[in-house]
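User: C-alpha cells in, sequence out, please.
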C-alpha cells in the first residue's frame, strides 16, 4: 500500500512552493466527477490549452474532458469509439474509451499523478530537494515529466533510444534531464539498470510504475469508475458488460478491471500483449513494434489472480489498423471491402467534439455559462432546457424529444450558454458545427432551418402560456394548447408536477393547490400526468 507517513519539513517546503506557483492539487473525487471542480477553476480552464504548461491542467487529469484542444471543460460520458460490426466482424458491441483528450494525449499522465501526488502531500518528496525520476518506454515518463513541471518539481525522464523522435523532441521542453537507454520497446531491463545507478544519489526518487501502488490505485479509482460510467450511459435494455481487455505495459489499467469485476462479477478480464514478445504466454522473448507496451516481465502491481485470459496481438495487426484509419487507401478499403458508407466512416473517425454521444439520465448535456462550437440534435430520449436562478429556483424553458434541436443560437454566435440542457432519461445526441453543415449539405441546412422555425413556434407558445397572471389561467392555456394539438379532451403532459410548475414558472405547492381546486370545481379530472378536460374544450380561457 501507499506509505502516508508525514515528513513535516518536506511538506512545509511543498506548501510554500505551491503557493509561490499558484498550484492547487485536484482530488481523486474531482477526477471521478468533474462536477465537483470549483467554478473558478473551470473559468480558467475555459481559456487554457489542453497541453499548456499551467498548473490548472492538473484538473484535466480525467476521462471526462471535452474533445477540445483549447478551452474544453467536462462531459458526463467519457470520450469513446464504438467499433462497427462491419469492421470488427463480431456480433456484439465493442467500445474503446479514448485517452486522447488527456494532457500529453495519454492516460499515463493520470498514473504518474497517482504516484507523485501522495509523495508531495505527505512531504516524502521534497520539491526543493528531490528529482522525480520517470523510467518508462515513453508515455509514462512523458506524463511524469509533465506533472512534475505543473507541480514545480525537477524531473528526469528515462526511455529507450529507439523510441519515436517526437517523444524526445517534446521532452526536451518539459523534462529537466533526459536519459536514453539502449534498445527499443522491449528493452525494459536496460531502463532499470540505469535507475539502479541513479538510486545511489539521495536526491533522486525513482517512480517505478511497475511497482508504485499509486499507479493501480489511480486507475482503480478513476479509470475503473469512468468505464463503469460509460457502460451505464450507453447500454441498451438486455445488454451486459461481458468483458474488458487492457494491454500489459505497467499493468496499471488492469486494476480498473478489478473495480469492474466488483461491479459486474460475471465480467471476464483479459490482458493483451505483443505476439512477438509473449511474456505471460511464453516467458518473454523477442521485440515488437507496438509503442506503449513494455514486456519481458510481469509487473509487481499486476493482480494476475484476477486476470482470466491473455490475448496475443500481432504487431503487424496494430500497424495495419494505423494504416486503415489514417491513410486514403485504408478508408477506401473500409468502403469497398467492408461496405461502410462515407457517413459511417466519418462518424467513426471523427476527431473533434462533434459526432454522436450518449448521456445518462440526470446528466447535463450543456451547462449554462459554457461556450460551445456545436449544436445538438436529440436522436433518442428526452431532455429539458432549463435555467437555474441565482437564488436556487429553476425554470423549465422547454422539453426536448427525439428529432429536436438545441444550442444552435450559442453555437452560431459564440456567446456563453444562457441555459442548461439536462437529460430527462438516457439520451443520444448528434453534435454538429454550423460551419460543417453550411459546407457539406444544403439539404441538411434547409432541414435544420425548418426545425429551428418549429422550435421558435414552440417558444412562442410557451410565452403565451406564461403571460397570464394567475396560476389557473396558465394551467388552462397550457392544457388547452395540448388539447388542440392532440384533437382530444384527454391529454397527457411530459412533465411531472415539479417540472410542470417550473415550466409554468409557478410554485409547486401553489400549483398543486390550484389543480385541486379545479378538480373539485369539475373543470378537470386528474390521473397522474393525464388530464381529462371538458369535451367542448377549445380555448385556454
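Assistant: Sequence out:
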Amino acid at each position: 500500500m501507499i506509505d502516508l507517513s508525514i515528513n513535516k519539513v518536506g511538506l512545509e517546503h511543498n506548501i510554500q512552493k505551491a503557493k509561490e506557483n499558484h498550484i492547487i492539487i485536484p482530488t481523486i473525487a474531482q477526477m471521478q466527477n468533474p462536477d465537483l471542480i470549483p467554478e473558478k477553476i473551470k473559468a480558467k480552464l475555459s481559456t487554457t490549452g489542453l497541453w499548456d504548461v499551467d498548473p490548472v491542467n492538473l484538473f484535466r487529469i480525467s476521462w471526462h474532458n471535452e474533445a477540445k484542444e483549447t478551452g474544453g471543460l467536462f462531459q458526463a460520458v467519457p470520450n469513446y469509439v464504438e467499433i462497427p460490426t462491419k469492421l470488427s466482424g463480431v456480433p456484439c458491441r465493442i467500445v474503446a474509451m479514448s485517452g486522447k483528450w488527456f494532457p500529453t494525449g495519454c492516460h499515463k499522465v493520470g498514473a504518474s499523478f497517482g504516484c507523485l501526488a501522495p509523495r508531495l502531500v505527505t512531504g516524502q518528496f521534497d520539491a526543493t530537494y528531490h528529482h522525480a525520476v520517470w523510467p518508462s518506454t515513453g508515455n509514462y515518463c512523458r506524463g511524469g515529466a509533465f506533472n512534475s513541471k505543473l507541480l514545480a518539481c525537477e524531473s528526469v525522464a528515462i526511455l529507450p533510444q529507439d523510441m519515436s523522435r517526437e517523444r524526445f523532441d517534446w521532452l526536451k521542453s518539459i523534462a529537466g534531464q533526459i536519459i536514453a537507454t539502449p534498445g527499443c520497446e522491449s528493452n525494459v531491463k536496460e531502463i532499470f539498470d540505469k535507475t539502479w545507478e541513479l538510486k545511489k544519489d539521495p536526491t533522486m526518487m525513482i517512480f517505478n510504475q511497475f511497482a508504485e501502488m499509486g499507479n493501480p490505485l489511480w486507475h482503480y479509482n478513476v479509470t475503473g469508475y469512468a468505464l463503469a460510467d460509460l457502460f451505464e450511459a450507453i447500454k441498451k435494455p438486455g445488454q451486459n458488460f461481458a468483458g474488458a481487455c487492457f494491454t500489459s505495459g505497467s499493468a496499471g489499467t488492469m486494476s480498473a478491471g478489478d473495480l469492474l469485476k466488483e461491479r459486474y462479477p460475471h465480467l471476464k478480464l483479459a490482458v493483451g500483449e505483443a505476439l512477438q514478445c509473449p511474456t505471460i504466454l511464453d516467458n518473454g522473448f523477442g521485440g515488437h513494434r507496438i509503442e506503449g507496451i513494455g514486456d519481458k516481465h510481469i509487473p509487481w502491481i499486476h493482480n494476475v489472480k484476477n486476470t482470466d485470459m491473455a490475448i496475443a496481438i500481432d504487431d503487424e495487426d496494430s500497424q495495419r489498423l494505423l494504416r486503415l484509419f489514417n491513410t486514403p487507401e485504408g478508408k477506401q478499403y473500409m468502403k469497398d471491402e467492408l461496405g461502410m458508407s462515407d457517413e459511417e466512416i466519418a462518424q467513426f473517425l471523427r476527431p473533434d467534439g462533434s459526432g454522436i454521444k450518449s448521456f445518462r439520465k440526470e446528466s447535463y448535456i450543456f451547462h449554462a455559462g459554457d461556450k460551445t462550437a456545436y449544436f445538438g440534435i436529440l436522436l433518442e430520449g428526452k431532455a429539458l432546457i432549463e435555467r437555474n436562478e441565482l437564488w436556487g429556483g429553476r425554470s423549465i424553458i422547454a422539453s426536448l424529444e427525439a428529432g429536436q434541436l438545441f444550442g444552435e443560437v450559442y453555437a452560431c454566435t459564440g456567446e456563453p450558454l444562457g441555459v442548461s440542457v439536462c437529460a430527462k432519461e438516457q439520451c443520444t445526441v448528434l453534435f454538429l458545427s454550423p460551419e460543417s453543415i453550411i459546407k457539406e449539405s444544403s439539404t441538411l441546412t434547409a432541414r435544420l432551418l425548418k426545425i429551428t422555425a418549429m422550435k421558435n413556434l414552440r417558444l412562442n407558445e410557451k410565452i403565451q402560456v406564461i403571460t397570464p397572471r394567475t396560476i389557473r389561467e396558465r394551467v388552462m392555456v397550457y392544457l388547452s394548447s395540448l388539447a388542440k394539438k392532440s384533437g382530444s379532451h384527454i391529454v397527457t403532459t411530459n412533465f411531472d408536477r415539479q417540472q410542470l410548475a417550473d415550466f409554468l414558472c409557478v410554485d409547486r405547492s401553489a400549483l398543486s393547490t390550484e389543480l385541486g381546486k379545479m378538480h373539485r370545481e369539475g373543470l378537470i379530472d386528474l390521473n397522474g400526468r393525464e388530464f381529462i378536460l371538458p369535451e367542448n374544450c377549445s380555448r385556454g380561457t
